[in-house]
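agent: user wants the structure for Heme oxygenase, HugZ family from Suttonella indologenes. delegating to structure tool.
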Amino acid sequence: MNDRFFTHSPQAQAKAAQGIKRAPEDRYTTLKAMQDLRNIWFSQFAGTLSTIYRDELPLASYPAASVVPYVLDDAYRPVLLIGHIAEHTQNALHNPKACLFMREHRPHGDVQNQWRLSAIGDLLPVPEAEIPAISARYFAHYPQAQDYDATHHFSFFRLHSKKFRIIMGFGDIRWVSADAPFSHPALAPDICERIITHMNEDHHDAMRGYLRHLPDAPQNIPDDAQVLMTAVNPYGCTLKYGDGLYFQPFEQPATDANAVRDALVALAQAHRD
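agent: tool returned. relaying tokens verbatim.
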């Protein structure tokens, strides 16, 4: 087979390295990348974690990857529950460098035109003092995980991202600093608890309405379905239905309890009309 069909000339490689020429209004800006990144970041609850095999293993310095569920903490950092015997645990304790990768899963079409997001940083154990709050948050999303310790010891790890790499399609690519997309800090824990408790006690109908209008939610949600709120932040709230988790974004960031209430009421009214 003639290799010329598979080998780009030096001139072609140099041209590709210069990037794709676009009109200014069509360029994929850092601002747009941060908006896309936020939308993805809050709507995903699992990704592919890669860590580095430790020195004493035959595959030392090679990456190890597997799928992991996670939740976000108050600083929007992924928190993972990993078994002590897992390679990721042993790898991270020797070398914290890690990557959490997620991608779009459309069944048809060119995968290169679907979004991809990588968070690159250090995977570190969650300090003991934070475990009660972190475990309550994690188990609210994944209640079945409370039984994992019956088989193997599990520990919480947190990814401290340094950079994001976002790709929204061919040529729509950006590096983004880890703190850049999140200009609004998390709501105070007591505010979150009050909102979540109130919604779960009094507003199941509204949350079923939210869920029915989300594009990734199941169809034909019954009128008596139990939909629970598991998290809320200025950008939206997380809903749990069965084993699924779904993010309901707010139209505008809600930075206090009153703003969150207004956002939730507006969503309920919009879905009722």
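agent: one observation worth passing along. The chain has two domains: 24-177, 189-271.
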